Amino acid sequence: MQHDVRQVIEKTLRLVAEENLLSLPAYGDDTELVDEMGFTSVTIAMLLFRVEMELGVDPFLDENVRITDIRTVGDLCRVYSDCLAAQA
């Protein structure tokens, strides 16, 4: 089953933001999750959990992928896309 990583991530960003009463700005690949979107460590954890459940992969099982390297929407899309590509 082919997943549209960006679509899943954008849907999940909106859902987690709504649940936590965050107002998302217009965003793109370079938009920072914490500084520009207002996510905290807790809301990022919620986001990652939901994306992992939706896509069925955990990119952080790879020791070369660190959660601290995920700063932007583009970073988030890249690590999940790379993880899915590695499994294909």
The whole-angstrom Rg is 12 Å
CATH topology: Non-ribosomal Peptide Synthetase Peptidyl Carrier Protein, Chain A
Q: Identify the CATH architecture.
A: Orthogonal Bundle
The best one-word shape is globular
The span between the termini is 10 Å
Q: What's the CATH H-level superfamily name?
A: ACP-like
Q: How many DSSP helices?
A: 3
Roughly how much helix do the residues carry, as a percent range?
40-55%
Give the ordered list of helices and strands.
Answer: HHH
Largest sheet, in brief, is: none
Under CATH at level 1, the class stands as Mainly Alpha
Q: What is the residue-mean pLDDT, rounded to a whole number?
A: 94
Protein name: Acyl carrier protein
InterPro entries: ACP-like_sf
Please, could you describe this protein's structure?
By secondary structure, the protein is mostly helical. The chain has one domain (5-87): ACP-like (Non-ribosomal Peptide Synthetase Peptidyl Carrier Protein, Chain A), CATH 1.10.1200.10. It has 3 helices and no strands. It has helices at 5-19, 41-55, 73-87. Helix 1 packs across helix 2 (41-55). The protein is globular. It starts with a helix and ends with a helix.
